[in-house]
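Thread: "does anyone have the structure for this chain?"

Original post by V.I.:
We have the sequence but no experimental structure in hand. Need at least a predicted one for the grant figures.
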Amino acid sequence: MSATVITLVFIMVISGVIDGVLMMAGQPHWFLISTNGDSIATVYGGYELFMEGLMPHGGTMLPFELETPDIGLCALSMVIYLVVGFVLSIWISGRRQLT
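Reply from O.Q.:
Generated one for you, tokens below.
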């Protein structure tokens, strides 16, 4: 139960906050897991089309410019998260003593 809660808090809260801060600062944020999730939703039209669906009538009242991340870099970072998580889970389960 705690592993599920910690994972959801990391993905939804911590990664989302860091993603927002990096986006407002104009820094690259393609390596964060929250950006990778957003890239799945915006693959066909970018953030502009996504935000237009959320806020019709053309107004995005954001104090910064939305830049759609590169899909290739996001896919690469998702693969890296998968491989690192898989290797860590094998290493942790190998160290457990099941009796």
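V.I.: this helps a lot. The two ends are 22 Å apart (CA to CA).
O.Q.: and The chain has one domain: 2-95.
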